[in-house]
Design goal:
- The complex is a heterodimer.
- By secondary structure, chain A is α+β, with helices and mostly antiparallel strands.
- Helix content of chain A is 40%, strand content 12%.
- In chain A, strand 1 and strand 2 form a beta hairpin.
- In chain A, helix 2 packs across helix 19.
- Chain A is globular, with a radius of gyration of 23 Å.
- The termini of chain B are far apart.
- Chain B is globular and about 70 Å long.
- Chain B has a single domain, classed as 2-Layer Sandwich (Alpha-Beta Plaits).
- Chain B is built from five helices and eight strands, in the order E-H-E-E-H-E-E-H-E-E-H-E-H.
- The chains are: A alpha+beta, B alpha+beta.
- At the A-B interface, helix 7, strand 13 and strand 14 of A face helix 1 of B.
């Protein structure tokens, strides 16, 4: 096999044992790499019902077949998969930057880490040499300090480090793993799983070659993508960047504001992509092998946060800005910087703070409980102060909020659950689901919880391809088809910002794969891989008791608090009836039962017959329950 | 014969370079027929998100690397200024590496001999491959004189722009 390393590394942190096993061509072709391969390895290497923080829960680092090649955006990625401490189901996230290619060059398609180190440690992978090293001197260190100190200790500037900060060590359920300063394995709390294993970081140096099957063909292909990257498909990311969405969503009454109280933000112009670029962005940089560039590096020029520097994208700008009612970009840039230092999910943290602000405004939590922080919507200083507390799990509230909104609402009790905006335990990303209803359905069925990147269901709504104020038949198929594409993008670990450059969709991606690996694959086979991965993830969630219909829902606030803002969206929210129509339609398009369970027949068609027992068991339970 | 001042070398514009290392991959692809930045003759350095620069051999006059080699393994080509390595003579001692002020001498990870920029030329563009592939057009293949002209022009433009702005704001 070309492009693949052909090898999986196992590390047991409890015993210190390591071993390798080969990656078969069948496994490679069926699950591609990245999250596809990762979820299959998670299924095969974990026991049902294992708690996310139990040493037996494996955390799996995966590269993709294109990692380490010159493939633009695809050459630089890695994925991390584990059981999520936020959702109890599949946890997965990808990051680009510079770490992934070194892991591939070190010779691994996947690294499966189990057990728990007796003391804080880091894993040092130096090609074939694998070592578990002391990290006690890095206790509570920021992600960036950890990166610098490990490279200093090992004496090589080009070593790549993927690390957690204090939040991960303290088991914050939305802790991230971060590489290259600000590139995050952000969602689903993978950093907390690392923390539960006493694993501060994975450091890697890979010096081996990565060879593709057809060098000439591959070279021509990447030349073509480089050319396309100079064109309209990537313009947004290379100019204003994703913060362009602020004004777009605001104009659609889809910019969730003050924890989904409003759908428009009166301060939108002060936190827009336009304003950000004019006043704060110093340079736009890029990841390894990328033919475009998107990292808008913002620097605060004056005021209390002068000099604060961070990369800012729409999601985090929104979560710590409009969602908290904050209209000060200097504070948002500083908030982003410290969130990266603690190592937290930049989406979840904003939703968590907005949730706390909502509770504070409604008198459900008091100023005594916030340790004197005036947690009103729009208070930028309060935003920064509470982030520090959450990152350190300091005080009653800081400690509770580090559990994420779902668990925090349970701990606070009373009406708190009404303000907790999450799906399956994962905080909502930056779209108002009341006014983008394909997105409401798409996010509700995402296997990793609330997510805009599992099927891109916001896109038909925002682009005006459908009536976004209602859910009707046909949306299910739209979501199903897109989810397969997103699964393959995340298994090849192509950056989603580049997805528009694959003009011929599946044909382009299948061609890309074959040129690199030498493994023939048709667009149809690759689509089926995407379908297989979706069903596999669903089966994992079902196995863990989190995968049936009742978990595919939208938050209370989305269903019970109609949009109050004047305009076409006034009075809109999502009803149980339309969710039911949407779910029936979606399950039907997948060939799943009405309870959202894949049929045995469908699983066999997809080559998942060996896991059909999970569906059969779930169907028995569903019948018993009737 | 080419005059020393007409020798061309690859240089990166600090305002444009974003540290994407496409140059490293292009270099290893063309010169080593594989993907491996450790085998690249140009290396990008990122010292923080705003500090990026790709660095390679500048084909200096009286190069320190050649002078430092105790085994006469390095020679400079008269016309191009390219540093050629006699792989039989080089024993990988690395004196040339410490002598080079640009960190442009590299140790080959497998052969354990040094290697550096060979100004590989693309048939189409007549420029080195890294220059051809750089997506930001940050790399150029220049003589010292054209480089000087470029920065002189920039300095003068900046001066007058600043003066113009100052006039406007008055």
């Amino acid at each position: 096999m070309f492009a693949y390393a052909g090898k999986i590394l196992h590390v047991n942190l409890t015993t210190g044992e390591t071993k390798t096993e080969p990656l078969s061509e069948e496994m490679a072709k069926s699950y591609i790499g990245g999250i596809g391969l990762g979820i299959r390895l998670l299924m095969d290497n974990s026991k049902p019902g294992t708690d996310a923080f139990h040493p037996d829960n494996p955390i799996i680092y995966c590269t993709g077949p294109l990692s380490g090649t010159m493939g633009p955006t695809a050459g630089n990625g890695y994925a991390v998969v584990s059981k999520s401490p936020a959702t109890g189901g599949v946890g997965e996230s990808k990051a680009h930057g510079f770490f992934g290619p070194d892991l591939k060059r070190a010779g691994y398609d996947a690294v499966i880490i189990t057990g728990k180190a007796p003391k804080l440690s880091y894993l040092w992978i130096d090609d074939d040499k694998v070592e578990i090293r002391n990290a006690e001197y890095l206790k509570n260190a920021t992600v960036n300090d950890t990166d610098n100190k490990i490279r200093d200790e090992l004496g090589d500037f080009y070593i790549r480090v993927s690390a957690i900060g204090e939040a991960g060590e303290k088991l914050c359920r939305f802790a991230a793993i971060i590489n290259d300063e600000f590139r995050a394995i952000g969602r689903t709390g993978m950093g907390a799983v690392m923390g539960s294993k006493n694993l501060k970081a994975v450091a890697v140096r890979g010096t081996k070659d990565v060879n593709v099957a057809n060098m000439e063909g591959f070279k021509e292909y990447i030349k073509m993508i480089h050319e396309r990257m100079k064109g309209p498909a990537t313009k947004k990311y290379k100019t204003l960047g994703t913060p362009e969405n602020v004004l777009v969503l605001n104009s659609l009454s889809a910019l969730a504001t003050r924890n989904w109280t409003n759908a428009t933000f009166e301060g939108a112009n002060k936190v827009s992509g336009e304003y950000l670029n004019e006043h704060y962005v110093k340079k736009i940089v890029g990841c390894a092998t990328c033919g475009m560039r998107c990292d808008h590096i913002a620097v605060v020029p004056e005021g209390p946060y002068k000099g604060s520097t961070s990369r800012l994208e729409f999601e985090c700008l929104w979560s710590m800005g409009p969602l908290c009612g904050v209209d000060r970009l200097d504070a948002i840039i500083e908030a982003m910087r410290i969130v990266n230092e603690y190592g937290m999910d930049g989406i979840s943290i904003g939703v968590v703070v907005a949730f706390a602000m909502d509770l504070y405004e409604h008198g459900i939590i008091t100023k005594e409980q916030t340790d004197g922080i005036d947690l009103k919507f729009g208070n930028a200083e309060a935003l920064i102060a509470i982030i520090h507390k959450i990152g350190k799990r300091e005080g009653w509230l800081g400690n509770i909020l580090a559990e994420g909104v779902a668990k925090a609402a349970e701990l606070i009790g009373g009406d708190a659950y009404k303000y907790a905006c999450h799906i399956k335990g994962l905080e909502l990303p930056g779209y108002d689901l009341r006014t983008l209803k394909t997105a409401a359905l798409g996010f509700s069925v995402s296997f990793r919880g609330a997510c805009h990147l599992r099927n891109g269901a916001y896109s038909p709504d925002v682009k005006g391809k459908v009536n976004r104020f209602k859910i009707e038949k046909g949306r299910g198929k739209m979501i199903t088809d897109e989810s397969h594409m997103y699964n393959i993008i995340d298994s090849l670990i192509v950056c989603k910002f580049s997805r528009g450059t694959y003009y011929d969709g599946w044909k382009d991606l299948a061609n890309y794969y074959t040129l690199a690996t030498g493994i023939p694959i048709t667009p149809e086979e690759m689509t089926q891989d995407g379908d297989r991965i979706e069903n596999l993830a669903r089966l994992f969630n079902i196995r863990e008791g989190k995968g049936t219909r009742k978990f595919d829902d939208v938050p209370y606030k989305i269903k019970n608090f109609p949009v109050p803002d004047e305009g076409p969206a006034k009075g809109v929210c999502v009803s149980d009836e339309e969710m039911a129509i949407g779910l029936d339609d979606y399950y039907a398009s997948r060939g799943w039962t009405a309870d959202g369970i894949p049929t045995v027949e469908r699983l066999k068609q997809l080559g998942l017959g060996d896991l059909a027992y999970i569906a059969e068991d779930a169907m028995k339970v569903a019948k018993g329950g009737n | 014969m080419v005059r020393p001042q007409d020798r061309k070398f690859v240089t990166a514009d600090p305002d444009k370079c974003i540290g994407c290392v496409v140059c490293e991959y292009a270099c290893s692809m063309v010169n080593e027929k594989t993907f491996n930045p450790n085998k690249s003759r140009i290396r990008a350095m990122r010292l923080g998100p705003l500090i990026n620069l790709a660095v390679t051999c500048r084909h200096c006059e009286d190069p320190a690397c050649v002078a430092a080699c105790p085994r006469d393994a390095l020679t400079q080509e008269e016309d191009s200024g390219i540093i050629r390595v006699d792989e039989n003579a080089c024993n990988g001692c690395g004196w040339c590496i410490s002598a080079c002020q640009f960190g442009a001498m590299n140790m080959h990870p497998e052969k354990k001999v040094v290697f550096t920029c060979n100004s590989c030329t693309d048939n189409e563009t007549k420029e080195p491959q890294c220059v051809k592939w750089c997506p930001e057009e940050a790399l150029t293949f220049v003589t010292a004189e054209t480089l000087a002209q470029k920065y002189r022009q920039k300095a003068v433009k900046n001066l007058f722009q600043t003066a113009e702005e100052a006039n406007k704001s008055q």
